[in-house]
Design goal:
Residues 20-407 form the Major facilitator superfamily (MFS) profile domain. This protein folds into two domains: 1-210, MFS general substrate transporter like domains (Growth Hormone, Chain: A, Up-down Bundle), CATH 1.20.1250; 215-420, MFS general substrate transporter like domains (Growth Hormone, Chain: A, Up-down Bundle). The protein is 80% helix and 0% strand. The chain contains 17 helices and no strands. Helix 7 packs across helix 15 and helix 11 packs antiparallel against helix 17. It is globular, with a radius of gyration of 21 Å.
Length: 420
């Protein structure tokens, strides 16, 4: 019974990680708690409290996405050059400043400054801590500790808890004032800043003294990694349909009020199922989970399209989409994050993680625009879902080829290793 509980308990698994890795995993919980204190209510604040129109709201939300996801490549390269600790700490300070600016902002200038700061902060600390976790988890795996994919599974579970907790606290604080909510979010990052400053070891950067351009050059010469990055980009585009296509579908069937509940369903699936699934994948599939996971993502869109086409009742297509997409996410993401370290040869992990994330951001920018046009075109409601399925399906094919042909991605199912 004790072993069974350990499989399902993130706290039990965290005890197997060294202190810096535990700090990163718990930090992810705090990152998302602080961020989601504010993000779900930002557009409402802009329209209801400040009276801004949809064009300015869309611009601000777009700026936030671009300044975060689009600039990950820069944050990752800086982490390689100057080290994880200083770059992450700088990101926390910038995020705190951004939230305080949003608390004070009543006009476009401060709103733009605060929005860009909150986004750019994540572009600094996220690739830095992901690269650090990948490096330390790789070392731990080689010493017969938890695998890197399992460490990233814990990282993902912690993030999902934050996604659930943040909006709950934010909704309570919002009854007082939006400024109170943003100051509270800034306070969360002050705690994270202090914890990282005290708990993250001072270590020399892996590529100190080398020019930043050398890191990007190394990434761009890694053809296997670039192919992997292009294929992986459809994951982030698929995931972002929770924010674009899913609300449209729920509104179509008159069930818009279920959106928040479906996000909770997705988060609960990850919290309860991510670690057991990661262990199964480690033992039985290895990197073969990559093409399988992308096939599940494609299936999520195909099943939704089919259910819409046959006029399935009410929110059934939306529920099927969320459940199947989350299953694909849980299968793909931990294995893919482990694969980055393999493909990078354990070098310049910051630059590699940064480029991976920025490519996903570009895919979301372009793909969501095209999908949005399809959603607005007034054609058959199943069509956008069927068309989008082609992207993760293509990724499944590419990932299958890479797993067969790239030595760094050769499957190493853990049933060949005795960890008991």
């Amino acid at each position: 019974m004790r072993d069974l509980l350990r499989r399902w308990s993130i706290l039990g698994r965290l005890g197997e990680l060294p202190r810096p890795m535990r700090l990163i995993v718990l930090g992810q919980l705090a990152f998302n708690t602080g961020f989601y204190l504010v993000l779900p209510f930002f557009a409402l604040h802009l329209t209801r409290d400040l009276g801004f129109g949809g064009a300015l709201v869309g611009l601000l939300l777009g700026l936030r996405t671009f300044s975060q996801q689009g600039l990950f490549f820069l944050g990752g390269a800086l982490a390689d050059r100057f080290g994880t600790r200083p770059v992450a700490l700088t990101g926390f300070v910038v995020r705190i400043a951004g939230f305080l600016l949003l608390a004070l902002a009543a006009g476009p200038v401060l709103l733009v400054a605060g929005t860009v700061a909150t986004g750019f902060a994540a572009a600094l600390f996220s690739p830095a801590v992901e690269a650090e976790l990948a490096r330390r988890a790789g070392d731990l795996e080689r010493s017969e500790g938890p695998t890197r994919s399992e460490a990233f599974a814990m990282f993902g579970v912690a993030g999902e808890v934050g996604i659930v907790v943040g909006p709950v606290i934010g909704s309570l604080l919002l009854t007082v004032d939006f400024a109170v909510t943003t100051v509270a979010a800034a306070g969360v990052f002050v705690v994270v800043l202090v914890a990282f400053a005290r708990g993250m070891p001072r270590e020399p950067a892996a590529h100190a003294g080398e020019p930043i351009l050398a890191g990007w050059g190394e990434v761009l010469r890694n053809r296997a990694f670039l192919s992997f990055t292009l294929a992986y980009a459809s994951w982030l585009l698929s995931y972002n349909q929770l924010y674009l296509a899913l609300p449209v579908e729920l509104d179509r069937v008159g069930a818009a009020g279920l959106l928040g509940g479906l996000f909770v369903v997705s988060a609960v699936m990850v919290v309860l199922g991510q670690l057991p699934l990661a262990e199964f994948v480690r033992r039985r599939l290895g990197t073969r989970a990559l093409p399988m996971g992308f096939a599940v993502l494609a299936l999520a869109f195909l099943v939704t399209a089919a259910l819409i086409a046959v006029d399935a009742p009410g929110p059934v297509p939306a529920v099927a989409f969320v459940v199947t997409l989350t299953l694909g996410q849980m299968t793909v993401v931990p294995v893919a994050q482990d694969a980055v370290g393999r493909l990078a040869g354990e070098r310049r992990l910051g630059a590699h993680f940064g480029v991976l994330a920025s490519a996903g951001g570009l895919a979301v920018l372009g793909g969501s625009s095209l999908l949005g046009a399809l959603l607005d075109a007034g054609g058959p409601p199943a069509l956008p879902w069927a068309v989008t399925a082609a992207l993760p399906l293509a990724s499944a094919i590419v990932m299958g080829v890479l797993v067969r042909r790239v030595p760094a991605l050769a499957p190493e199912p853990s049933f060949e290793r005795n960890r008991s």
